[in-house]
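Can't paste images in this forum, so I'm doing it all in text. The chain is below; anyone willing to post the predicted structure tokens underneath?
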Amino acid sequence: MKALIVSDIHGNIEALRAVEKAAGDVDTVLFLGDVVDYGPQPRECIEWLRGHGRMSLRGNHDNAVLTRVDCRCGQAFHPFSVATRELMWKILDESDYEYLRAFRPEEEIDLGGRPAYAAHAAPSDTLFKYIRPDTPADVLAAEAEKVDTELVLLGHTHFQMDRTVAGVRFVNPGSVGQPRDGDPRAGFALWDDGEITFHRIEYDIDATVDALRRRDLEQHVIDRLAQVLKTGK
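Text version of the structure:
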């Protein structure tokens, strides 16, 4: 069984299509949340998930678009999430909202006979808690106690991660649409008969920036988002 594991697409269809091409033929797609906010093409990304996603989880930005509550993201990016969320409300239609409402907060899945737990943020807080590559081991151990599997799939941080604590492997495929680790290439992971590999792929960032510039956003918002796309930070 081969599965494509993606997270944090954030309305970036150019990155998503590059990931799809690089991954090649897969049996299933596992999406760990946040298809909206920041990027210019949320509807195209939602449509892609409709056609490909076996599992789609609700991220904090998906939740904010749906419920109009705060996404509680980091303060450095919060103003840009708010600005683009207003854009999401203008772009998305009721069919998109209906699809997003079906996203689950967490799920236990079977990967070719091997169980795994998946959430956007953390087992203890599926929407908001940050489990980063440098999260202390005792914090990860506490999270490990909340699951019954040896594999946990998470998104949310926009950083790729592979750590094992207390017998539980925590995997984050990184961000497809807005990496923040200093590498602007789209991030994803592949599960192939029990082996997990991490990947980065170049895509047409200029096309995404051009699409941003055509959206009804203030110039300082476009400039900052373009900087993140081009630099990965």
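The two ends are 34 Å apart (CA to CA). The first strand starts at residue 2 and ends at 6.
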